[in-house]
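Researcher: Here's the sequence for the chain we discussed earlier.
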Amino acid sequence: MSVRLLHHLVAAQAETRPEATALVMADQRMTYGALEAMSNRLARLLRAQGCREGDRVCLLLPKSLHALTAIQAVLKAGCVYVPMDPASPALRAARIVESCRPRVILITAATGRLMEEIAAESPAARAARIGLIGPQSWPGVHFEAAEALGLPESAPDVRRGPEDAAHILFTSGSTGLPKGVVITHANALSFVEWGVDYFGIGKADRLSGHPPLHFDLSTFDMFGSFRAGAELHLVAPELNLLPNKLAEFIRSSALTQWFSVPSVMSLMAKAGVIRDGDFPSLKRVLWCGEVLPTSSLIHWMRRLPHVRFTNLYGPTEATIASSYYTVPACPSDERAAIPIGRPCGGEDLLVLDEEMRPTPPGEVGDLYIAGVGLSPGYWQDPEKTRGVFLPHPFSPGRVYKTGDLARLGEDGLIHFVGRADSQIKSRGYRIELGEIEAALDALGILKEAAVVAVQSGGFDGATICCAYVPAEDHDLNPKDLRKALSRHLPAYMLPTRWAAYRMLPKNANGKIDRPRLKEDMSASPEKADA
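Model: Thanks. This is the structure I predict for it:
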């Protein structure tokens, strides 16, 4: 069949390979045929509940086979799915519901209490139809997915096109209100088609499903698997911070592809859970979302010489990733940064100065993205959309201002420099906080480290703060750490405020929660140890 929309991917596999395995989680498996039939029935039930083309359906669902079936069903019903974090505070979740005003909210028994708290804060939640997914019951729902069992297995007839919204992903907003990034079918399919082709993903592949469903990396795990007819092995959330369990998951699932945020890869490297020649089935390791310390990459590459390693870069607003760099050989220098590389198919990356003119190779400028992955904008926020989605300076169309700094190398590769807002001025010097983090990582005595800046109110301009987790075999105090770091950095770049953690706080996407660290450091100036 012709694939024009995301949910056509499963339908195409079910048409030719209905008995092939599509989804795996723990001891549960689902074939492409079963996924197609079950999602079609649920789509018909959603239509019976009043869902129409373009309506939003919020998914307050833990990662599961039921959740992925629900995603397919929402798309087949002609609607837009809005994945929500089941671990989110009720007030934040209520803001998301108020913003997208869903026709239906799908829950499980495990998220029923959170749904009640959301409804207490949100009139839009109280107005929505609440549907229950899964085997257990919960009081007060309007319908249950089990009611779909008697409905036809064919998909309902809906009218949607590639430029219509497929999902809305809510990310943190600078004002404290979540902002919804609208992603169309065409946005996601463009990257999926490129990725499956570039990585050579096929029917025999077994892909990891590590990120939460409200994080955009999961879009490629899911629809990339469906495009290739591969198996998607979902990683249970409770394994996320257990490096030995994650390593065993890769082994026991015989994965051929692992895709995660760098902090997870660093955690596994620091814990020493990867053996020489480990994961014999593994072909590819991909990472995206933040900078992977080169020392962690070296750790992986030395132990897995049979694996291909690719760095992907891209914000949610440009759909999954916009550039790629496959590392040709194991780096020899732990302090050498890994490029973000070249644009993915249909994408373009521009490094521009303040006048939006191209910067010469080697000079740092603002990074912009253009091409097929650009979101239409933020959900019902035209002002914020206009602020970062700008007219293309050289051709028709738009560019997205990422807020990142980059430089173009003489070899044509793009190098990530850091966030524009992470370049600070302290004691008259311009400092890139990422350079300090790279130096800390190269010391080899820390399990994790993050550097943030807080306003000092004095002549310094900004106070550089370091949050760190010592390696298990190192007993460190800030004076020792500062002395070690002083061998690599000038005095003006050394943090003056330090805080030891048992584990650095993470946000819902598994990234280091830098706003939380800034709050901690601002609230506890006594941590200073200059």
